[in-house]
Specification:
It is found in: Cell membrane. This is ABC transporter ATP-binding protein. The chain is mainly alpha-helical. It has one domain. It has 16 helices and four strands. The protein has a two-stranded antiparallel ribbon. A two-stranded antiparallel ribbon has the order 3-4. Helix 1 packs across helix 2 and helix 2 crosses helix 12.
């Protein structure tokens, strides 16, 4: 028991000190840690849909985009500059606080998730994946083209001048001097994202052990048997889509505040594929595994920059560094899935009956 407490305390101290250590190597490393935390939130949200309920969603990035654009529109001068009614009522913009942004992003993304879930309730497997993939692309194309006849999203130019997040009067977009020590903006965002990730993990664990979580897992294993046992599969599926989407919406809003700019390019199909890969690579339905997969796949492309450069020089520049990075990521994923087909850190319950039979 004492060893467990010591490990928890050591892990908490390491997480708190990590950005302060990374600062010495440059803000780029802290930024990688920030984005890794956002991807952890996205992967945990998708894990509810794919890992718990067994619904293969390839359009999850759409909810990420909804949250980002929601915050971008409400926290930038875009609406004031393009709509007379808005300029009349909010001449200086809305400048929403964090406590209003998170519930709004959560509700809007959850509503979008339910709206997606309604027409696909009877679809399963590959058919569901194709429909959700199309939904994700539709959202991105809408964001890219809603700049005429009414300029709502500013099209491919994106939304800029987005406000930074303010917590209890502290502007996370500005450097903070504390006891003579400078804490950069990216480090302040790290602590906000870490707090949101911890809340997300707590919610996921509570859902996993609840009656709702058990109902999702029953649907995943055998939907017909679950329906025969009295589970309302329709409502449970819609709830899974809504709950999973809500985490994506909050992560998107935080991404918009962190970047200060959002555009359709940030929400491509490849982003959805990477988030699904994080869940599968880490271990379907297992929260620690999903976190591990998200951290590895979000940090790996940046770490491989230092490998792709020397390889490019060895080929006299004939191979592009970005292509080499993608090749190395793909090879790493193939090797992991061949060696660990159930994921890097699979759920101990997953495949238990299979192991007994063999």
């Amino acid at each position: 028991m004492k060893n467990n407490k010591i490990q928890w305390i050591a892990g908490a101290v390491a997480l708190l000190v990590l950005p302060l250590v990374l600062q010495y190597f440059g803000n780029a490393w802290v930024r990688i840690a920030d984005l890794a935390l956002l991807y952890v939130m996205l992967a945990l949200g998708l894990n509810i849909v794919v890992g718990y309920a067994g619904l293969l969603d390839l359009g999850y990035v759409a909810f990420y985009a909804v949250g980002a654009y929601m915050f971008g529109l409400l926290a930038s001068p875009h609406l004031t500059e393009n709509f007379a009614w808005f300029a009349q009522h909010f001449p200086d913009g809305m400048h929403l606080s964090l406590w209003a942004v998170i519930p709004l992003a959560l509700v809007l993304a959850a509503t979008t998730g339910v709206l997606l879930g309604i027409p696909v309730l009877k679809l399963r497997g590959d058919y569901l994946a194709i429909v959700t993939l199309g939904f994700g692309e539709i959202i991105r194309i809408f964001m890219n083209n809603l700049d005429h006849p009414v300029n709502l999203t500013n099209g491919p130019k994106g939304l800029g001048q987005i406000d930074s997040v303010k917590v209890f009067g502290l502007d996370l977009g500005r450097r903070l001097e504390l006891f003579g020590y400078d804490i950069n903006s990216v480090t302040l965002y790290y602590y906000l994202f870490l707090a949101l990730v911890l809340v997300t993990i707590a919610v996921c664990y509570r859902l996993q052990d609840s009656r709702i979580g058990r109902a999702w897992m029953a649907i995943r294993e055998d939907e017909i048997a679950a329906k025969a046992m009295g589970i309302n599969t329709r409502n449970m599926k819609l709830l899974a889509f809504g709950m999973g989407a809500s985490f994506g919406g909050v992560a998107g809003a935080m991404f918009g505040a962190f970047q200060g700019f959002v555009s359709p390019e940030s929400f491509s199909l490849m982003e959805s594929v990477m988030i699904v890969a994080m869940v599968v690579l880490g271990g379907l339905g297992h929260i620690p595994g999903v976190i591990l997969g998200a951290v590895l796949l979000s940090a790996l492309p940046e770490v491989l920059r230092y490998v792709a450069g020397p390889l490019q020089s060895m080929t006299d520049g004939r191979l592009d560094a970005s292509i080499l990075r993608q090749l190395l990521i793909a090879l790493a994923m193939i090797i992991v899935m061949l060696l660990r087909p159930r994921g890097l850190w699979p759920s101990p319950e997953h495949g238990k009956s299979l192991a007994r039979k063999s």
